[in-house]
Write a structure and sequence with these properties.
Elements (H helix, E strand, L loop, with lengths): L7 H52 L10 E2 L42 H5 L6 E5 L4 E6 L21 E5 L8
Antiparallel strand pairs: 1-2, 2-3, 3-4
Length: about 170
């Protein structure tokens, strides 16, 4: 007898295989997105650090905030990303536009810090300097696990931030 249709079991097997493959693809894509955001954050921190070192070589000091943390999110004054009133003051000639965190305005559900998992206004970059030393911190990071061997690891914020700093700024701020 000649068969002209699929059986119900065959259709269910095909649907199950397609569902499994789409789940694997979605999980893999999400991991890739997280890694891309973390790589962008590290690149932003390096870019800011290089511009700060250039500023220092010209001005014999870093842009000072008098030891007060400033940032581009509402938790840290919500200062603009460019101009004289930017979150790194008087820095426009060295970096016309300061970067935003890729997760700005969103919660970070995989952060170790509880506030970062629920508050969409804390994923940002913050800066502090006394003129002699500086520290730039990417708050609520990384997405995923922190590692003490990561060169961006911040011993002052072991659960919720990456940092770049002058040598003296690492443990000062």
């Amino acid at each position: 007898m000649k068969r002209t249709a699929f059986t119900l079991v065959e259709l269910l097997v095909v649907v199950a295989i397609i569902g499994l493959l789409s789940t694997v693809a979605a999980v893999s894509l999400n991991t890739t997105r997280v890694n891309a955001r973390n790589a962008q954050r590290k690149a932003n921190l390096i870019q800011i650090s290089k511009a700060l070192e250039l500023y220092y070589s010209v001005n014999n000091g870093y842009p000072s905030t008098s030891g007060v943390w400033q940032g581009n999110c509402s938790v840290y004054l919500g200062l603009p990303d460019s101009g004289a009133g930017a979150w790194i003051p008087n820095f426009t000639a060295y970096m016309a536009q300061l970067p935003h965190d890729p997760n700005t305005g969103k919660v970070n559900p995989s952060s170790a810090a509880a506030g970062c998992r629920t508050n969409p206004n804390v994923s940002c970059y913050v800066y502090v300097s006394n003129g002699t030393d500086y520290k730039v911190v990417a708050e609520c990071l990384p997405e995923g696990a922190l590692s003490t061997t990561d060169p961006f690891y911040d011993p002052m914020r072991p659960s919720d931030g990456w940092q770049v700093s002058s040598v003296g700024g690492l443990n000062t701020f």
